[in-house]
Structure formats: C-alpha cells, structure tokens
Design goal:
The protein is α+β, with helices and mostly antiparallel strands and 373 residues long. The chain folds into three domains: 113 residues, Immunoglobulin-like, CATH 2.60.40.1120; 96 residues, Ferric Hydroxamate Uptake Protein, Chain A, domain 1 (Beta Complex); 61 residues, no CATH class. It contains seven helices and 21 strands. Strands 3-2-5-6-9 form a five-stranded mixed β-sheet, with no helix packed on it. A five-stranded mixed β-sheet has the order 10-15-16-13-14. Helix 6 packs across helix 7. The longest helix is centred in the N-terminal third of the chain and has 17 residues. It starts with a helix and ends with a strand.
Length: 373
Amino acid sequence: MKLRTKFLIAAIYLFCSLMAGVTGKISGRITDKVSGEPLIGANVLLQGTSNGAATDIGGYYHIINVSPGYYDLNINMIGYAEKTVTNIRVEIDLTSVIDVSMTIEALASEAIIVQANQKLVKTDVASSQKSISSNQISEMPVSSVSEVIGLSAGVSGLSVRGGGLNETQFMVDGLVLNDERTSEPTTGIPLSAVQDISLQTGGFGAEYRNARSGVINVVTREGSKDNYSGTISIRHSSPTQKHFGKSPYDPESFWFKPYLDDEVAWTGTNNGAWDEYQQRQYPSFDGWNSISQQTLADGDPSNDLTPAGAQKLFTWEHRLNGAIKDPDVNIDAGFGGPVPFFSSKLFRFLFEHPKDVNNKINTKKFFLSFIKT
C-alpha cells in the first residue's frame, strides 16, 4: 500500500472519530392523508437552517448532521397544504422519526401547524442512553457538568454503574477529554456553553473506544448568526462545612488531640491516661518529652528543643485554619453572535467565562464556527 493511500485512510479515520456522536438525524415518511400513498419529491426543510431533503420514491426523507436541540420542520408540495411540525427534539447519536400526512389543497391557504409527537420508547436504540437538553439543565440546582450527570440513576459524580473514573469516556464535541496517563475525565466546561448531554450506561457502539462503564458526550452551543446574545448566572450559597462530624482543625479532632491534650501530649498516648479503646481512636504518639530528648541526644545543637518548644513549633506549622467561613459564589457568563466585520452567514462566535470565587477557578472558552451558506 502506497504511503499516500495510508495517509488518506488515517485522515479519514481521524475525521470520523472526531465527528462521531455530536449530531443527530431526522427521518420519516410523507404520505397522502386520504389514500396513504407516499408523496414523491416533497420538500422537507428545517426552519432557520439550510438543512433539508426531498422524499424518495417511497416517500421517505432523511436529514443528517443535525445539531442537538429543538427544531421546526416545514413540509411543502405543489397541490398540498403547507405543513409545519414544531418542537422536534433532536438528540445526540439518535434518529427522530417524524411521519407526516399531507392534505390536498387546490387553493392557497394558511399553513397547518402541528405539535411533534415523538415516541417515548425508541425501538431502534440498543444502548441505555439518556439525553439532557440545555432547557432541562437550566431548571436543575447544579453548577457543573458532573453535578448534572450525578443526578442520573446509576451515576455518582462521573462514575457510572459503580465503575472507576478511568472507565468512563468523557467527550466534548466528539473529542475525548480523558487524561492520557490516568484515563480520568477532564471537566471544567461552563454550563451556559452546553447544548446537549448524552449519557450512555451500556450497549454503546464501536465508535466509543476505550469505554467500559459509560460514555458521557457533551455538545456545546454555537453563537447565533443573526444577533448577539449573552447569559450570566450567579449561584450563591451560605458557608457550610464540607465534611461530616468535627472540623479537622479542632483541637479535639483526630489529627490534633494526641498532640495538644495535656493528658497525653507530654508523656504519650500509652501513659495510661487513655484506656485501650480511646487509644485506638487516635494516632499513636510518644509525647513531646520524648521528642525533646531525641533532639538533645542527636548531637546536633541547632535543633535542640524543649518539650514546650517542640509543641509550639508543631502549633506554628499547623497555624493555618482551613475551616470554611466564606460563602460559595459561582459565576458563569457568556456572550455570542456573528463575528464583527464579517457576514453573519459565515462566522459566529461564543465566549464563555466560568469562575468560582472561592476556589479561584477561572477558565475561558472561545468558539469560532463556520456556517454553510
């Protein structure tokens, strides 16, 4: 096999792997309402886009590479009343089946508008898959993609069906974002940039390689090609502990009590002041007297310490208190639209800026998409 042929095959494979699982499809059949016969050559168009199709000899149509979201489908044919099917849900990697029956109309009249009636049970889907739209996410009390996924049955954080994090494949716009060394997912996508999330917990296809427990596929939004728009979300929660029980920084805690409690701090936890049960609850410690003797006996006068000095050095090294006193504030802002000085039909952008005030998380995301005319 020639080198050029090998390079072409590798390029095709790479392109297919990058494009896998980021779009959906709309298909169905257009028929005459009275006779039930298929209509050949009917025009089917997704409103607001340049995507469409014409029905074949059997009345079937297929619109591929449709970004996930909600769409209106317009059907027209000479001699029939124009019909519009609204609120069609397109999901990642799935086919939305929309069958339409047309009514003969000799004279021009108003278009017929109907609500899409999609099946709740998809008989053509072999995998266990759940789709979460941006509209659903906006109604959830969450601030990250992992929290959105964690609300699904059988998922804890990004761990699916009890598997480890390294067994979950995490994808954004078809690109795998698992760490190359640990294979753990790398998240940090602002929620305002999410258009759709697909969660597969079993039976996923061969295009999802190196996935054992589940596949999380995130498709991001694109800026509008007609106007500018922005979003901002601020979440505020009162300061509260992020652990159970006593604070780790409390003098009576597991980490500090053996070194600060006067009953055992000087002579050790085995001096008889604590019973056997209490000794097992805390780390074993020989006492500051023993520590002082060790520093005096090592022959190095530069580190000599008294028992009180050794304890004071310990408290100074652990002087920082990490108890949470500030509220949690999460800000998620975005802005998008057509690129200035260019035709709005060619380029558009989306800028996202999530920030966690307390944890100092500050990441930016910028999209520049090419739109076909």
